Amino acid sequence: MNLVSKMLRWFVLVFVITTISGLAGWYFFLREEQDTLDATARARGAGQIAPTFGDSFGSTYGNIVGTGTAGTATSAPQGPLPRLYQVTRAPVAGMTFITTASTTKLRFVERSTGYVLEIDVSTGVLTRLTNTLNPRTYEAMLSKNNNVIQRTDDGAIIRTKAGALVAATSSDEVGTLATTELPSGIGAIAFNATGTEIFYIAPDTSGRAAGVRAAWRGERPSTLFTSSIFGWKVQWLDDGRIVLAQKASSGVAGYAYTLGANGALNPITSPRPGLSVLPKSGSNAVLVSSAENASLTLDVERGDAVTTLPLRTLAEKCVWSRSSQLIAFCAVPQRPPINNFLDLWNRGAVHTSDQWWRVDAATGGTELVYSAGDTELDAIRPVIDDEGKYIAFLNYRDLSLWLLRIAQ
Amino acid sequence: MKAGGALIALLLAVPFAAHGQFDLFGAADLALTISPRAPRAGESVTIRAESSAINLNAADISWSVDGAALTSGAGQKEIRIQAGALGSATEVTVDASDGVSSATASITVRPAEVDLLWESDSYTPLLFSGRALPSAGSSLRLEARARLLENGALVPARDIVYTWRKNGSVMASISGRGRSGATIPAPTLFATDVISVEAQSISGRLLAEESARIPSIEPILTLYTVHPLFGVEYHRALGAQSFINETEVSLSAVPFFAAVRHPDESTLQYEWSVNNVAIESDSARPSSITLNSEGSSGTALIGLTLTSVTNLFLEALGQWQVILSGDREPSAENPFGTPL
Lengths: 408, 340
Hints:
The structure holds two protein chains of two kinds.
Chain A: H1 2-43, H2 59-65, E1 84-86, E2 92-99, E3 104-110, E4 116-120, E5 126-128, E6 137-142, E7 147-153, E8 158-166, E9 176-181, E10 188-191, E11 197-203, E12 209-215, E13 222-227, E14 232-236, E15 242-246, E16 253-254, E17 256-259, E18 265-267, E19 272-273, E20 276-279, E21 285-292, E22 295-302, E23 305-308, E24 318-320, E25 327-333, H3 341-346, E26 354-360, E27 365-371, E28 379-384, E29 390-395, E30 400-405
Antiparallel strand pairs in A: 1-30, 2-3, 3-4, 4-5, 6-7, 7-8, 8-9, 10-11, 11-12, 12-13, 14-15, 15-17, 16-19, 17-18, 20-21, 21-22, 22-23, 24-25, 25-26, 26-27, 28-29, 29-30
Chain B: E1 10-12, E2 24-26, E3 31-35, E4 44-50, E5 60-65, E6 68-74, E7 78-82, E8 90-97, E9 102-109, E10 113-120, E11 139-147, E12 149-150, E13 153-154, E14 160-166, E15 169-170, E16 176-177, E17 181-185, E18 192-201, E19 207-215, E20 220-227, E21 231-237, E22 241-244, E23 248-256, E24 268-274, E25 277-279, E26 288-292, E27 299-308, E28 315-324
Parallel strand pairs in B: 22-28
Antiparallel strand pairs in B: 1-2, 2-9, 3-4, 4-7, 5-6, 5-8, 8-9, 10-11, 11-17, 12-13, 14-15, 14-16, 14-18, 18-19, 20-21, 20-23, 23-26, 24-25, 24-27, 27-28
């Protein structure tokens, strides 16, 4: 009996110790997981306090860094940024990467104020570069030589300003944007690779659309071609080619051209419904998408060779790697598009939830790069840094700015 | 020419209304037809022999391309070739003989191309990234971009004669030499027009054509919030049912593809209703209204009818259910009051 009682006591003791150890282990495991989830949630903007638009630093600045002095953030995410990082919650008008020998920064223009800000992509430290107010900047382009184009829409006409960043004279101050008004009614505009010139479409004196090349502040304008058509999208590639594509509509044939030196429009691909194109600089490769009804197709064209990719997305959701390799990254809707998708999407009436895919245009191979899970991202205007490590894009759902680290 | 009923081949330079220009050499009773009439560069071309004097079904027919024999056989009335590059000339010759009479004909295929671009001047927001589509009362802007390569150089637009057609009928007022662009009325309500253009070099040697089927659509009323800081949120149209985390919101109706230059044009009449009660909008900005749900349930059934005093064909309807947050304050999770 004593033996049985002794064994029973030992058994109970072992059971209690094992249970307590297990519960303790489970507790610490859960706490660690929760810390990871909290860090990811904080990175994506969850739990932040409501924005204070009335402060002296502007909405994004205030929203992200909380308290701080002008120009320099005093708080930043702890540790390295998560792979997918929401840079701003407020709408952004445009962005580009600025790479120096030691750092890569994402520079962007806030839609509400026109302020220029930049974030260090490795540390998350945010800096506001200008305090020149340009409310309701609907669209912005930034060049790598510190020039900025800002576009506002007062409902009747588009106003376009070209500005240069003027650095602050002391660390307590914020820089300014010295702007010049460009001709009104510019329908589309793009910087050249160095930011020293612009190309834009604007009405001429005869009421036709003119394609004008000018110095970045609009000096020395030279009309390269004229057209009855006003609805063009413009890309100025790093290799110097100017690419014009008609604005697209589902099921309606569109044309895309490169602009020749003599003003001739040379087809870049054959006409097709809902056409959009993304040529690669320094290459004959071009991503071509077409949209008709509920159908989306994406091709890679290299001269006469055409490869249809197994991805159903739009070319404007893609970005070419800046390396010489024919690598592109595309945001691809997870669900099949609905009927008349392109027109509804253009009007903001439908949105997609995208995954990021890598495309090897040389082989036609594709590979999933990143899936955002429950985070619904309708990626537009993607840009990639010089080293091919980061992609920045706007979420078309709210125009918030996101940063994706390509490698895991 | 061959003896015994040989026919005299005539040199015909026929300005076909087709993409590609070709010359036709042939006897009066042996002719060649080409399909498509005007091939583009690299396009597959079918050439067919026809004769009223020779029984081609029984005749020995031989074909050659640029002097090289291609094929031959009894009753082989048709061949298919691939058009060359822009600026090229491919001469196709056919010999036909039925034992009684014989004839020779040839044709030169010169591919040429013309692009037919179009858009409407109908209303879209200024930075809208889509095509402006035609609706009744709006206009169509047309442009032909021809690539006619002659003697190694592109024929300039001023040396090209453009012939525009609508539903097959020539539009003489906009056709002519150098007339590469035109503006015409959009198709009428619910109609579809087939617009085509022929571009022919003044030498008559090159010719291209293209056509487009262009339907007229009804304007589309779309409702957007007007954020005090961000402006009109064109990226986020309100759906049939939307929740907005604000007690007060300004909404702007955008009449996509209406035949107007501005949504607040005086010729437009906006008839707004909220919960089936007609309401007045700001006379300066009739396309916008402001809702305030303070002290109420916050649910608003918004109705809108858009008409024009000058364009009887313009009528667009829209209905949206908008749920405002009532007296609640914006939350930390949704500080911008975004529709959920």
